[in-house]
Description:
The chain has 145 residues and is of the alpha+beta class. The protein has 5 helices and 5 strands.
Amino acid sequence: MLQADADVEAPGQIRLHAIELFILHLSSKESGTFDPFGEHYRVFMRIKADKGNGWGEILLNEGHRPADWVVWASWYERFLHRSFKSQASLQEDILRSVDPLHLSRAQLLCDALQGAWQAEDRSSITGKGGSGPLFRLAEAYVSLF
């Protein structure tokens, strides 16, 4: 969902308080249908916002794996602790800051935001133990607050 629609308005201001990234390495055996493309990374994002918590998820192949996940995640800092008038204004800001290197990051953030607005049940991601099991499986973890 990489579009800003002025007709989509969320009441009140929107503010992101924290972003967590859980990076899981998938070997070529675990990648399943992506096997011809080598190894992959499954990146989960959890956001904490005024409107609720949301989860997002993307797959990155080995060729798109950053050398440093913390540096990769630092792009999200520009959206933390700022007030946005609506979901549309936040998405517009995301789109303004996108270049080809940031496209997967923008996709992940928009996916998580959509989950927060729709209050999706993402227990299939975390299981019954919240983010604890995901934290234990993660190769890397980044927390921005």
